Amino acid sequence: xxxxxxxxxxxxxxxxxxxxxxxxxxxxxxxxxxxxxxxxxxxxxxxxxxxxxxxxxxxxxxxxxxxxxxxxxxxxxxxxxxxxxxxxxxxxxxxxxxxxxxxxxxxxxxxxxxxxxxxxxxxxxxxxxxxxxxxxxxxxxxxxxxxxxxxxxxxxxxxxxxxxxxxxxxxxxxxxxxxxxxxxxxxxxxxxxxxxxxxxxxxxxxxxxxxxxxxxxxxxxxxxxxxxxxxxxxxxxxxxxxxxxxxxxxxxxxxxxxxxxxxxxxxxxxxxxxxxxxx
Length: 279
What we know:
The chain has 279 residues and is of the alpha+beta class. Helices cover 36% and strands 13% of the residues. The strands form two sheets. Strands 3, 4, 5, 6, 7 and 9 form a six-stranded mixed beta sheet that branches.
């Protein structure tokens, strides 16, 4: 028996903004009503909470504490297909320090005050009371998840919530790691579509990819944000055409890795852009 709907309802009733996650740990894509944000729901994704659509759309912004929404027929159908429960940390007034490997955990134990801790498949979530902006890759293996983000619910964990320390705020202000790993081959399925670019000619796509590579290469700071915005722009123009191939995507990932992005962060940025566009 699937316990996810029951658990999700109990969490919502306790005040935790929840949303269903797919098998790949990402939110469900937008429904047909909300494709291309035709519903008018928050194109900038700056306002939490679902739009008028009854389905769990708009990624992290779908998270809700409304039991009537969580238990509605549309959401119940989504919960039955879900493989995990997500929640909006910022909406719950907390920040998750996501530690992805033993080295990151060791760093946290040395530099961060003890707080509530949840074991994950690869490391630990350290949860603090207080919200802030979300930033990935503040250190090797360390992401900050709070506002405009989501995290997986993996249980209450152990320990007592501590106040969000200044050292975590400072992490968000620092530049990402300056390590420059060698570009590695990546395999990301291109978005489904109808083949040739329907906008203009193949030269239009080639010029767009070349400009995207240059934009990433020219980034002097805020590399994570630049990569995400560039991926978002490419997908906005070509994500629904079917003209993007694995070769095009690999070129974008290679440019990002040359600026210090890890393959995982490239994949996360690409997935987040797909989710934001409802593709």
